[in-house]
Write a structure and sequence with these properties.
Number of strands: 11
Number of helices: 1
Strand order of the largest sheet: 3-11-10-5-8
Strand content: 25-35%
Distance between the termini: 74 Å
Amino acid sequence: MFRKTRSLALILGAFAMFGLVACSGDDNGDSTPAPTATSEATSTEAPGEATSVDVTLGQPSELALEASPESAAAGSVSFEVTNSGALPHEFKVVKTDLAHDALPVDGAQVDESALDVVAASAELANGGTETVTADLEAGSYVLFCNVAGHYAGGMHIPFTVN
C-alpha cells in the first residue's frame, strides 16, 4: 500500500511541476505567452542550386506526362524523371513558342530537327529513373515523350520558365 501511495504522490508531483512550467509566462513576470516562430513561404533552394521538378511518365494513364511544379525560375533545373508506366518512355525538353500540342510531327514522332531540344533522357523502361539537368532561360517550353506514337497520344505538357 505504501508503494502505491508513494508512486501516486510522485506522479501527481510530476504533473504539478509540468503544470507550473506550462502555465508560466515569460521572464518579465507577465502572463503573456512568449511569441512563437511562424512559418513563411520561402524557397527551399539555396542560391546556385538547381530547381527540382518531379516528372512522372506513364501515370495516371500510360500516355500521361506530369510535372510538379509546372514552372521554374530561370537557371539550372533538374528534372527527376520516373517511368511509372508499363511501356518504355523518354523525356524531352524543347524551348518553343509553339503550343504544346502543335509541335511539328514527322510520321509517328515529333521532328526534333525542327526544334531547339535543350534536354533529354534516355529511353526508360518501367520503373526507370533519370535526372535530366538543363540551364534554362526564361520562356516557354514543351515537355514530351517522343517514343513513336506517344506525342500524338497526348504525352506532352507546357512548361514555363520565369
